Structures are given as C-alpha cells and as structure tokens.
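F.,

This is the one I mentioned.
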C-alpha cells in the first residue's frame, strides 16, 4: 500500500496522524479513498472546477504529479505520496 503523508496543518484532515496507507491505482483513486475515510480532503485538493487546486502540491516519491500525469498518475504499493500546500519563494 502507498504511504500518504499530509504536511503541516493539513494533518488535521487525517485526524492529526503522521501518515495513512492507501491501496489505490492512481492519485485520483487515492483522493477518493481519502475522502471516504476523512471528509474534506476533496474540498481541499480540488478547486471549484474539479481540477487540482493551485494551492496544493502532490508528490509521488518526490516528483510533482503536475510533471507526471496529474491525478491520473499511477501508484505502486511502495510509493510515498506527499500532499502539501504550495508555497512561493520571493
């Protein structure tokens, strides 16, 4: 199962746990499972148009899913998924 980590204040969405394990074929399925178990995840991750919110970054083993196949990016059992708020440097 893939390990999913939420950074910082986002941990409140998963009851302040450090991580959860999810068996999913891709990020979209992972988010659906997270929403089923932890209400509010989809509202955070997706914008009003159902697209990945600009304020959220999701990484699979350090690779931003925007550089892969977006929410269709495949997951393997050994993957680590990090969900965090975006930030900008000035």
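My design for it:
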């Amino acid at each position: 199962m893939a390990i999913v980590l939420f950074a910082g204040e986002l941990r409140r969405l998963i009851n302040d746990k450090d991580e959860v394990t999810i068996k999913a074929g891709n990020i979209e399925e992972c988010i659906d499972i997270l929403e089923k178990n932890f209400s509010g995840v989809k509202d955070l991750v997706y914008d009003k148009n159902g697209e990945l919110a600009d304020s959220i970054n999701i990484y699979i083993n350090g690779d931003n899913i925007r550089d892969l196949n977006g929410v269709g990016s495949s997951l393997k059992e050994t993957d680590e998924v990090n969900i965090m708020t975006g930030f900008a440097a000035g």
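The domain at 2-85 is CATH 3.10.20.30 (Ubiquitin-like (UB roll)).

Talk soon.
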